[in-house]
């Protein structure tokens, strides 16, 4: 959470949300928010796992550069 939000501020935000959406809608909104946050977390961790480490990226870029230079010379 944000470090500047205290307990009184959080209670005020929850009360305003309760007034706007009503008591029946809040659990649905909270569940949807939780699922969205979970999917976002899964996607970011998967993207981080799919990326090769830095040295491998440089090697891949050097290989493609030499291949394109070879094609340009022929």
Automatic annotation (TrEMBL):
The keyword Cell membrane applies. GO terms for cellular component: TAT protein transport complex. Residues 63-74 have a biased composition (Polar residues). One of its GO terms (molecular function) is protein transmembrane transporter activity. The keyword Acyltransferase does not apply. It is found in: Cell membrane. It is a single-pass membrane protein. Pfam families: TatA_B_E. Its main location: membrane. Keywords: Cell membrane, Membrane, Protein transport, Translocation, Transmembrane, Transmembrane helix, Transport. Residues 41-74 are annotated as: Disordered. The chain crosses the membrane at residues 6-22. GO terms for biological process: protein transport by the Tat complex. InterPro entries: TatA/B/E, TatA/E. Forms a complex with TatC. Belongs to the TatA/E family. Part of the twin-arginine translocation (Tat) system that transports large folded proteins containing a characteristic twin-arginine motif in their signal peptide across membranes. TatA could form the protein-conducting channel of the Tat system. This is Sec-independent protein translocase protein TatA. It comes from Natribacillus halophilus. The gene is tatA.
């Amino acid at each position: 959470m944000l470090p500047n939000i205290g307990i009184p501020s959080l209670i005020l935000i929850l009360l305003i949300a309760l007034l706007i959406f009503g008591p029946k809608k809040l659990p649905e909104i909270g569940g949807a928010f939780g699922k969205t946050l979970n999917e976002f977390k899964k996607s970011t961790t998967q993207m981080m796992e799919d990326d090769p480490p830095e040295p491998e990226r440089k090697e891949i870029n050097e290989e493609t550069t030499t291949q394109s230079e070879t094609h340009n010379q022929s």
